[in-house]
Write a structure and sequence with these properties.
The complex is a heterodimer of chains A (323) and B (410). Chain A is 37% helix and 12% strand. Chain A is built from 13 helices and 8 strands. Chain A is globular. Chain B has 410 residues and is of the alpha/beta class. Helix content of chain B is 39%, strand content 20%. Classes of the chains: A alpha/beta (323), B alpha/beta (410).
């Protein structure tokens, strides 16, 4: 597998405006939906004929209600745990037909899944497809919970968050477990391209989508996508929360090409000027899922969150190549 | 009848015969995961790939769930897809079997029938595919390795028929067929390719009024596998039943067309009868045990007993008319089941046969024998005992014990 990321991609607002929408309006996502914004934007970074496959989840459900569709490109959903296996089958079919001369042009394959379809039920299919080296870009839109079924905890739900299966009770104050480090797991697959992105820094996100498509072999993009319903946050603040996640180092942005990891600009600036790193409480405030933490008896959870963030941030900066 | 095409006799076990047939069918994608007693199929196919004998993309998936998913996705991308499984592997595919038939993807799968856990058992019975009888797949069960070879070829022609567009399972008894060497007459690759032809895709009319092939194609973007609410879901399911109805006819046609090509046919493709025309007592069975039953029928016939056999080759769609025609006039019927339906009234095949004959004016008494679970050997003497029971039942017209277990310590 070779990785060509030499070309410096740049997307401007004009590009976005002139590029036709491939994820169309009329879908039934909630007001302020982070994932819907992410999908609309990342489809602007496709580079030619593309097939999209998607796991069961919010974005699948809101976009494909028969007989309507929001997808202006070929799109397939089959089940929850198998977006990467769908991509494997599509990739193999395209290769077989190309060998037989039935297909003349290259077709990109994108697999989409939420955190449930990636961290939890979809991890096996994803790991298998990456190990086999299929040529596809897997985009994880992470809203940190099973929002489609009514806000249950997933392996991507952070410590302390209240969900309907980890409610803030009298004895147990929300989720007791840490968020699974999914990108570290994917990096450990020795895959050619792994990156994280947020919709606020949309140019950075689109460049990463394009790079992921250009790579021959599997690419993984982890996009942080706030969910106002599940997070009990204001719909108008979706992009702001994604930005706060970067500024507090809750969700640093970076990319790893052939295992060489570099912080992307917004996180790099914090690494260069640590005083810019904001406290986690700036990010937690206003999110209903963390409201129960702002009490004296739960202060230790916030402290633990801060400690975890600091620890993971420190480890990350050590693992990154110097700018 | 035309002279059959030239054929070569090869010593093959059932699995090898299946792999060879899949190779000759020029499949585009094979996605599979190893499981006994199916493994020889994927091993053999891997050899074809490694030696450059096929152009197939072979995906060694990390699970059967992904194997079926990949076959489905490949099929919807326009490819011809094949897989093989058994037992726990088939059970793991369960969810995707329904999605595959629901998406009307003509995937073909060989199932080397094997017992389900627990306790763990790798030997042959039909619990695995019988548990998938409502998954929307066409189910064909074979009696020999020869038939396994022939049926895989036929399966593509049935599955890909535009009026059927359903996936097909070809079941062959684990070990009894999958691992037993047999002389198999094989057609040339060209003959097979010509017989099944290139995969034809259904067409659909787009919103713009354009007629386009039904596949994932950037030229004609299409949304596949959508969510359908109560206002549409039901119609999708009814259409699947229509595909099954059409399969009933298509299986018979393909059986005849294949007979012309090869000189071999299996009854009318749906049911295969043996000495049934004038039979007074009859056994209904599925799969390889029918071979043993034929020997027993021959013995009894020599002794003057009018014994007959109906081999149910196609279990889904159920050939109700053929069952009624063939069985209504016998005096007593025994139905053999190589699987159990716990808490039900007998095994799956028994229920179907009894149900099919209910509306006949004179339905004969029907008795059920569960046999061979977990690979338990079924001897000719035991099968002879079944016929002897039937002689008694035919005389009295009464079934004392409806569900019986053959060769079981109790």
């Amino acid at each position: 597998m070779t990785t060509q990321t030499t070309q410096e991609w740049n997307f401007t607002a004009k590009d976005i405006a002139t590029q036709p929408d491939l994820f169309l309006s009329g879908h039934r996502a909630c007001a302020g939906c982070g994932p819907a914004t992410v999908l609309r934007l990342i489809m602007k970074a496709t580079r030619g004929p593309t097939i999209v496959t998607e796991a069961t989840g919010c974005m699948e459900v809101v976009s494909s209600i028969y007989p309507y569709t929001s997808w202006n490109l070929p799109w397939l959903h089959t089940a929850f745990e198998n977006a990467a296996a769908n991509a494997s089958g599509i990739d193999a079919a395209l290769k077989a037909m190309s060998k037989k001369g039935k297909l003349k042009e290259h077709i990109d394959v994108i697999a989409l899944a939420g955190d449930g379809g990636t961290y939890d039920i979809g991890l096996q299919a994803l790991s298998g497809a990456v190990e086999r080296g299929h040529d596809f870009l897997f985009v994880l839109y992470d809203n940190e919970g099973y929002m489609n079924t009514g806000i249950q905890r997933s392996g991507g739900t952070p410590l302390g968050a209240a969900t309907t299966t980890t409610p803030a009770g009298k004895v147990i104050p929300g989720k007791l477990e840490k968020k699974k480090p999914i990108t570290e797991i994917m990096l450990a697959h020795d895959m050619p391209y792994v990156a994280t992105a947020i919709p606020y820094y949309w140019k950075d996100m689109l460049v990463k989508v394009r790079k992921g498509l250009e790579v021959e072999g599997p690419a993984f993009l982890h996009v942080f996508a706030p969910c106002p319903r599940g997070w009990r946050s204001e719909p108008g603040k979706t992009l702001e929360y994604s930005k706060l996640a970067v500024e507090t180092c809750v969700f640093p942005v970076w990319e790893a090409v052939n295992g060489k990891r570099q912080l992307s600009t917004p996180s790099k600036l914090i690494a260069l000027a640590p005083q810019k790193k904001r406290p986690v409480t700036d990010y937690l405030a206003g999110q209903g899922r963390f409201r129960h933490l702002f009490t004296p008896q739960n202060q230790h959870i916030i402290d633990e969150m801060q400690r975890l963030i600091d620890e993971r941030w420190q480890k990350l900066t050590q693992k990154c190549e110097p700018a | 009848m035309k002279e059959p095409a030239k054929q070569e006799t090869m010593a093959l076990n059932g699995d090898e015969a299946v792999a060879l047939a899949a190779k000759q069918c020029d499949v585009d994608v094979v996605a599979a995961y190893p499981i006994t007693p199916q493994t020889i199929i994927v091993e053999k196919f891997s050899e074809y790939v490694a030696n450059g004998e096929v152009q197939t993309e072979f995906i060694c998936t990390e699970s059967e769930h992904s194997a079926m998913t990949a076959c489905l996705a490949a099929s919807l991308t326009g490819a011809r897809a094949f897989t093989a499984s058994a037992s726990a592997g088939l059970a793991l595919m369960h969810e995707m079997l329904f999605v595959t038939s629901g998406c009307r993807a003509p995937v073909v799968m060989a199932v080397a029938n094997r017992a389900l856990s627990a306790p763990l058992n790798i030997h042959g019975d039909q619990s695995d595919s019988m548990a998938e009888r409502d998954s929307g797949w066409v189910h064909i069960y074979v009696e020999s390795s020869q038939e396994a070879y022939d049926s895989i070829i036929q399966a593509f022609k049935i599955a890909e028929d535009l009026n059927v567009s359903l996936p097909v399972i070809v079941g062959l008894d684990g070990f009894t067929l999958s691992h037993s060497l047999e002389n198999v007459d094989v057609l040339s690759e060209d003959t097979v390719k010509q017989f099944i032809g290139e995969r034809q895709l259904p067409t659909v009319v787009t919103h713009e009024g354009k007629t386009v092939p039904l596949k994932l194609d950037p030229e004609n973007p299409m949304t596949m596998g959508p969510i359908a609410f109560p206002n549409y879901y039901f119609e999708f399911k009814r259409q699947q039943q229509e595909g099954m109805n059409n399969a009933l006819r298509r299986i018979q046609e393909v059986n005849s067309e294949y007979a012309e090509l090869s000189g071999r046919s299996y009854g009318n493709g749906l049911v295969d009868t043996y000495n049934l025309e004038d039979a007074e007592i009859a056994v209904v069975c599925v799969g390889s045990t029918c071979g043993t039953l034929k020997v027993v029928v021959d013995e009894l016939r020599q002794e003057g007993v009018k014994a007959g056999l109906l081999r149910l080759r196609t279990f889904r769609p159920l050939p109700v008319e053929d069952l009624r025609k063939s069985l209504a006039n016998v005096a007593a019927i025994a139905v053999m089941d190589k699987s159990m339906s716990f808490g039900g009234l007998g095994g799956a095949v028994f229920c179907e046969i009894r149900h099919a004959l209910y509306d006949e004016k004179q339905h004969p008494p029907i008795v059920n024998y569960i046999y061979g679970l977990g690979g338990r050997d079924t001897r000719p003497s035991e099968l002879r005992g079944v016929f002897e029971d039937l002689i008694g039942i035919a005389k009295t017209g009464r079934v004392e014990k409806q569900v019986n277990y053959l060769g079981l310590r109790e």
